[in-house]
What does this fold into?
Amino acid sequence: MKDAFDVLMITHAGLCKGYADALKLILDIDEDDFGTLSFENGESLDDFSEAINVYTLKEYINEQGSIINPDGGELADYAKLYETIDEVIIKLANKLKYNKI
It folds into this structure.
């Protein structure tokens, strides 16, 4: 598939790479189709508050809330994170590929 998506994903380093890998797999696209930007330590979405068209992943798919970082949590917290990311990435792929959720 060679549609241009013009998407820039912004999140924490490892998570950003995981999202990018999932999108490449699901949508059969390469890194020329979208961009990624990873937060460095101490940076947050607030650092981009003046930017235009910057959304959290959930905002972009028209959902409320945020994806919780389970760092230091129980194994069940990481399982919940996996389920959440799986759902969100599928919805993002559908929005990008078919413009629907």
User: Anything to note?
Assistant: The helical segments are 13-27, 57-60, 75-98. The two ends are 19 Å apart (CA to CA). DSSP finds three helices and two strands in the chain. The longest helix spans residues 75-98.
